[in-house]
């Protein structure tokens, strides 16, 4: 399975017109959404702490909570350890955010890739895709948590941020321009990392949707126009490819602006094989 270089550089933007019903709070409420499987290795949470949260998400201008959404079955003691590692990490921040937890039912185990002998690698995207749509398209995570926030940051455990104040930087174009629905990073790199082969392949020859799409670990405006975009994306593509590439394809289909041409990227971090 290919794993995209995980990074949150500054900044690529997907813009779609939104209404002007009410002004945005100058200190918007953000939820950082971390979807994991109950059996995830504890070192993955520690890696996220070391690589993302050790660079302070905010320098004081953004209020945020953190949601750890755990799907599937594991020993209760293991899930407790996952939560404790995250709490300990975030308590080092000043001020430290609230840590929320949500446990999905076993029959809703959507985050672990759904690979069977029959499908082989064809369905490796369905787990992460389902976790994403559950959060952003009125699933349980949406109903219980997401809809109460202005913006939600999707953050898988292999994300590495590059600069302190990265959450402020992602929020800034949202507050400056009500048309911006997604703020994040394009691939903007020189490689894709293939974990199975411990190999980085050049991106220069990749198709446009791989080179230019905004990485799914991005900040999303919670708005009906985002719901419309994601509903169309899921209806057209299902699980034929990762959700972030599908969003790019649908945005292009609808002739939406996908990137700000004046953006400067600060780099890409390739997650090494553990």
Q: How would you describe this structure to a colleague?
A:
The strands form 2 sheets. The protein has a 7-stranded mixed β-sheet with strand order 2-7-10-6-3-4-5. A 3-stranded antiparallel β-sheet has the order 1-8-9, with no helix packed on it. Strand 8 and strand 9 form a beta hairpin. The N terminus and C terminus are likely disordered. Helices cover 31% and strands 17% of the residues. It has a domain of 185 residues: Spore Coat Polysaccharide Biosynthesis Protein SpsA, Chain A (Alpha-Beta Complex), CATH 3.90.550. The longest helix has 15 residues. By secondary structure, the chain is an alpha/beta fold.
Note the main attributes of this structure.
274 residues, alpha/beta, Spore Coat Polysaccharide Biosynthesis Protein SpsA, Chain A, 7-stranded mixed β-sheet
Give a short summary of the structure.
The protein has a domain at 20-184 and 217-236: Spore Coat Polysaccharide Biosynthesis Protein SpsA, Chain A.
Detail the topology: elements first, then pairings.
Elements: E1 2-3, E2 12-15, E3 29-37, H1 42-53, E4 63-71, H2 76-90, E5 99-103, H3 126-136, H4 140-144, E6 151-154, H5 166-176, E7 180-184, E8 192-194, E9 199-201, H6 208-212, E10 219-221, H7 224-237, H8 243-253
- Based on the structure given, which CATH architecture of one domain is correct? Alpha-Beta Complex
Distance between the termini: 15 Å
Percent of sequence in beta strands:
15-25%
What number is the mean pLDDT? Answer: 75
Give the overall shape.
Answer: globular
**Mind summarizing the main beta sheet?**
7 strands, mixed
Order of helices and strands: EEEHEHEHHEHEEEHEHH
CATH class of one domain: Alpha Beta
The unreliable regions are 1-26, 261-274
In total, how many beta strands?
10
What is the gyration radius calculated from CA atoms? 18 Å
Structural class by helix and strand composition: alpha/beta
**DSSP helical segment count:** 8
């Amino acid at each position: 399975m290919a794993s995209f270089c995980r990074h949150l550089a500054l900044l690529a933007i997907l813009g779609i017109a939104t209404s002007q019903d009410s002004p945005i709070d100058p200190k918007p409420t953000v939820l950082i959404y971390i979807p994991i499987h109950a059996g995830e290795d504890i070192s993955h949470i520690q890696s996220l702490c070391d690589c993302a949260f050790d660079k302070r998400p905010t320098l004081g201008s953004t209020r945020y909570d953190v949601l750890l959404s755990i799907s599937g079955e594991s020993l209760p003691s293991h899930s407790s350890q996952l939560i404790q590692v995250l709490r300990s990490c975030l308590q080092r921040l000043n001020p430290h955010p609230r840590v929320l937890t949500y446990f999905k039912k076993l029959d809703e185990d959507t985050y672990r890739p759904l690979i069977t002998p029959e499908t082989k690698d064809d369905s490796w995207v369905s787990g992460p895709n389902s976790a994403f749509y559950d959060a952003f398209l009125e699933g349980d995570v949406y109903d219980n948590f997401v809809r109460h926030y202005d913006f939600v940051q999707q953050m898988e455990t292999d994300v590495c941020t590059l600069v302190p104040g990265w959450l402020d930087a992602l929020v800034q174009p949202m507050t400056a321009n009500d048309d911006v629905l997604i703020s994040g990073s394009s691939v903007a790199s020189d490689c894709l990392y293939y974990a199975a082969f411990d190999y980085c392949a050049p991106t220069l020859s990749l198709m446009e949707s791989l080179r230019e799409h905004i990485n799914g670990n991005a900040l999303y405006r919670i708005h009906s126009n985002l719901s419309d975009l994601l509903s169309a994306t899921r209806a057209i593509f299902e699980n034929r490819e990762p959700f972030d590439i599908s969003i790019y394809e649908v945005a292009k289909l609808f002739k939406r602006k996908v990137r700000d041409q004046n953006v400067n990227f600060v780099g890409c971090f390739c997650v090494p094989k553990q």
